[in-house]
What we know:
By secondary structure, this protein is of the alpha/beta class.
Amino acid sequence: xxxxxxxxxxxxxxxxxxxxxxxxxxxxxxxxxxxxxxxxxxxxxxxxxxxxxxxxxxxxxxxxxxxxxxxxxxxxxxxxxxxxxxxxxxxxxxxxxxxxxxxxxxxxxxxxxxxxxxxxxxxxxxxxxxxxxxxxxxxxxxxxxxxxxxxxxxxxxxxxxxxxxxxxxxxxxxxxxxxxx
Length: 181
């Protein structure tokens, strides 16, 4: 039986706040001469004139997926996603102690070839949208357990930015072998 190949590899970068997800997404997109999907939540929350709610997290999740779908057409072999539904699921559950049904349903449907879990070995940088500087270790464990429970391919990415990039590229190398030319 012939091994199936695909035309685009989807990489999701996940992890607690302030762990270098956006930096890594930009570096990988630059390295592979492709586009990356920015974190939809940042712009959405910046425009809100009120505190966000659990319903906003669902809206953000839908916006993130729509942005992924739009940018996939522009991607060069690899689509790098700076966050995905794993992040919004954990965010909703941690903050509101509930997971909206829409996120649960779509989390299982949306597939990625690799998740890169960014470690908490980066310094915390204050930002009005960041909320949990004292829960980084707990949140990292939640992310790790979630990826294991989902039985998805993932790798923990740690170290200085150049080491994180090198490790991520090594993880992606194997996936590129199965791409259609």
